[in-house]
Amino acid sequence: MTHAELSPAEITFGFDELFFSRTDLAGIILFGNSVFQRVAIYSWDELLGKPHKIVRHPDMPRAVFYALWDTIKQGQPIGAYVKNRAKDGRFYWVFAIVTPIEGGYLSVRLRPSSEIFGVVKTEYEKLAALEAREHLKPADSAALLLGRLTELGFADYRTFMATALGHELAARDAKLGRAPDPSIERFGALMQTASSLLTQADRILSAYARNENVPFNFRVLAAQLGAQGQAIGVISANYTLLSDDMRSILDSFIQSARHVFNTISEGYFLASTARIQREALQAFKHEVGQGGGAEQEVRLLDRQQAEYSERAAESLREIAKSAEVFRTACLDMSRLSAGLEVTRVMGKVECARHATIKERTTELLSELEAFQRTVAGALREIDMMNHSIRREAQALMDAA
Ligand SMILES: Cc1cc2nc3c(=O)[nH]c(=O)nc-3n(C[C@H](O)[C@H](O)[C@H](O)COP(=O)(O)O)c2cc1C
Known about the structure:
Strand order of the largest sheet: 2-1-5-4-3
Helix content: 55-70%
Largest sheet: 5 strands, antiparallel
Bound molecules: flavin mononucleotide
CATH class of the largest domain: Mainly Alpha
Oligomer: single chain
């Protein structure tokens, strides 16, 4: 018998099918819809009242469940790819969105198909092998998973899950021949803009770090010139003051940029979650019909999707607010940048009068000029991106 014949097969299900289950606070299954029961193959008697780990697949890295419980116990929602095992040993993959609900948790799951899913499957395999080989503790393994996600370009797990869910929804819509969801598309574009905005903000930070010593070097030169270097000394002292001012606002500037990114990432996840919960609710209502005895579940699902829709709307207001705060930080930065520019030009005029230090000052001045060009260029880009973020957030609010 070949290896391929030995390996248990995958169970697939329709891209349009969503499953959900509800557990108590300990992860004991209290309810599930028919897709869940059909795909897992267990009877209701075998599922209800049993721990959700009944469908746990041994290939899954423990890190994922560690992150899952760590997040939901803090009252936060989480999205994760999960490989599950059906009763007959076959496996099926889902992207699960687990949200805290009164007295427990709700998990809505869809069939994943995005390019991120392909990457994650490989990462899980490597991590599960490492966990077994190194006898890793779940917390340590979760830290490794986070490290890998960072290497793959995601700032943190929340950014990863927001991006993955958004991509899954888009891939699923495409598979189902549906038109792309305009709000999810808009959020996807916002994420990209916010990510470029962070890149530009980081450019300013590293340009500053590279040039931090230049004003000091100028003052050394001025000192070497003695009385003749008095004017250069004054100019470079002014430059240093402005430069120190820039240093002091740089941290809050970067923090403010990150806040813009984080609010967008949060909104992306919440809007995607609300969308899939809404769809699960519609499908479930259709499944149970009127008076099917599942009124309580319909009510819970309805309340949950309403809550997440409201949270998504709130996040849009938060995005607009954070972009406005960041705009103010950018204005402060621009003012300092303009001040530095004027001071540099004054320095250039003064330095031109001293032939003895020409070579050295030309070099230092061109370093300052390059730095200012980087800052001004990055600020211009940021201004355009921030403007587009505010416009898009407004468009999303208008559409909501
Ligand atoms: C609402 C909810 C849904 C869950 N869904 C799954 C699932 O589909 N598959 C799974 O393996 N674990 C799921 N879990 C996590 C399990 O409770 C459990 O932590 C996991 O299977 C790992 O089991 P272990 O910690 O005993 O190894 C879910 C938990 C909750 C609260």
